[in-house]
Amino acid sequence: MELTARMLTRIKIPNLLTLLRIILIPVFVVIYYLPWEYAGLAAGAVFAFAAVTDWFDGYLARKLDQASALGAFLDPVADKLIVVAALVMLVETFNEAWITLPVMVIISREVLISALREWMAELGKRASVAVSFVGKVKTALQMLAIFLMITFTPFSELSWAGIGALYIAAALTLWSMIVYLKAAWPDLTEDL
After folding, report:
1. Spatial CA neighbour of 139 closest among 83, 92, 57
2. Burial (CB count within 10 angstroms: exposed 0-12, middle 13-18, buried 19+), residue 95
3. pTM beyond 0.70
4. For 72-92, b where at least 16 C-beta lie within 10 A, e where not — what string?
5. What angle (nearest 5°) sits at the alpha carbon of residue 106, between those of residues 103 and 110?
6. C-alpha to C-alpha distance for 83 and 176, rounded to whole angstroms
7. CB-based contacts of 156: which residues, under 8 Å, 6+ apart?
8. What are the average pLDDT values for consecutive 10-residue runs of the chain, which has 192 residues?
């Protein structure tokens, strides 16, 4: 127990926020499925809090000069875990093929780009597939879409706004994927 407490005191604040975001994933899922009138609202609040910690941990890492290898690894993992969990829940909740389609696009792109970044890192060229402005806008829209669709009753006005944001996020997802693939294409086709 002492070792764990000592380790926690050595972990940097941004990394603690990232770990908190990972811990919040099962909390978010359990709350969403509670047989309670306000389950969606409560789950949406947890999701929104997690999304804010995503921004805040990056800000603190830069501001406090506490960037770390652990944070660089865990932050995108935490982001993808909570987004994928939420998107899978939305597919089940909405139970419509036209909701499943943008979700499949988003999840497939995340897998592809994660693999691409890992491969480019092995080549020492990870910077050529660094997060772009389009990727940041895509992430913001994706988080907004998930928040609205989780928080509000399916097919209510605000839920429809979330569906619209989900489709825009899916389009930006494809666009950013093309940008990343275009940047990596010379290395991907080097030995053809």
Report:
1. 83
2. exposed
3. yes
4. eebbbebbeebbbbbbebbbe
5. 140
6. 17
7. none
8. 58 89 96 96 97 88 86 88 96 97 96 87 71 84 97 96 98 92 86 75
